[in-house]
Amino acid sequence: MKQTVVILDKPGKKRVRMDFDQKGEEKELIALVLGRAKGEYELEVIVDHQRGRTFGRVMIRGIAKNQANVKVTGTIIIAKKAQGVDDFLEMKLLILDDKSQAWAEPRLEIKANEVKASHAATVGQVDEEQRFYLMSRGLTEHGAEQLLVKGFLGQVISKITDVKMKRKVYAKSQ
User: Does residue 146 lie in a domain region?
Assistant: First the structure.
């Protein structure tokens, strides 16, 4: 399976397309939005299936703090002639303070009738019970938050197959 990794770690806009032009293609997109500084972070993902019997996965994780505004949109498009497509779009965003905001907008545009396509999107904050538990074990509030964010982002970083890219992404996520 062909894997693409995208990182948006500075305010700005990034648009990513994943096109399926040949029958039987398998592709995966892993994207991280690291909104750690004040500003607008916008990621748009478009997955376009023009041929059938294709397989796609999109996993997006994002964080927002220090007055960052993170917006993630994702669209899976399946053409009428693209029967037998299997695709899933997952977006999870974590807001780390009360001065930041995050939006996740998944969309499906399906014209074929024999497909398996779905999406999931969540926007939330750090679980206070988890933070409290970690602090009761000796971590500072900051240390507890860092550990929770590391686990949150690590869910997708661990799926990166290119070792060099995985190290780069891991370093940027710290």
Answer: no
57 vs 35: CA distance, rounded Å: 23
What's the domain count of the chain? 1
- C-alpha span between 62 and 153 (Å, rounded): 8
What tens digit of pLDDT does each residue of 3-39 get?
A: 999 999 999 999 999 999 999 999 999 999 999 999 9
Q: What is the pTM of this model?
A: 0.94
The H or E element that residue 133 is part of is: helix 128-136
Q: What is the pLDDT of residue 38?
A: 98
Q: SS3 of 8, please? A: strand
Which tokens go with 173?
């996520």
Beta-ladder partners of 55: 26, 86
Residue that has been written with the tokens 């926007």 in this structure: 123
**Domain boundaries, position 41:** 2-126
Is residue 165 domain-resident?
no
